[in-house]
Structures are given as C-alpha cells and as structure tokens.
Amino acid sequence: MTDAQIGLTVATPIIIVFALVLYRMGVLQRGATLSAIFSSVAIAIVLFLDR
C-alpha cells in the first residue's frame, strides 16, 4: 500500500467516529451525519481504487 492509501484507511474511520460523536452530542442532525459518513466512505473508495 502507498502512503496515500494508508492515510485513507486511517482518516476515514476517524471522520466516521467524529461524525457519530457530534451526532450523539446533538451538534449534527441525522441527515448530516449520514451524509458525512457516506461521503467520506465514497471518497475513500474512489481515491483508494483510483491509481
């Protein structure tokens, strides 16, 4: 794996956890949380596979 792929595998779960924590704190609404999670996963998949 390249450095960029390792970075994606580390950063994506951090983004997901952070979005869930913000949702639990009441900062984000459900739609915004799902949007953040799906967007980060989609971006990670595209960038991970696009070499």
| Strand residue percentage | under 5%
Q: Radius of gyration over alpha carbons?
A: 12 Å
* N-to-C span: 11 Å
State the major sheet. Answer: none
Overall mean pLDDT stands at 93
Number of strands: 0
Overall geometry comes to elongated
Residue stretches low in confidence (pLDDT < 50, at least 5 long) are none
Helix content, binned percent:
over 70%
Order of helices and strands: HH
Provide a count of the helices: 2
The computed structural class is mainly alpha
Structure at a glance:
By secondary structure, this protein is mainly alpha-helical. It has 2 helices and no strands.
Sum up the structure in keywords.
51 residues; mainly alpha
How would you explain this protein's 3D organization?
This protein is mainly alpha-helical. The chain is built from two helices and no strands. Helix 1 (3-25) packs antiparallel against helix 2. The N and C termini lie close together (11 Å). The model has no long low-confidence stretch (mean pLDDT 93).
Element layout with pairings:
Layout: H1 3-25, H2 30-49
Helix pairs in contact: 1-2
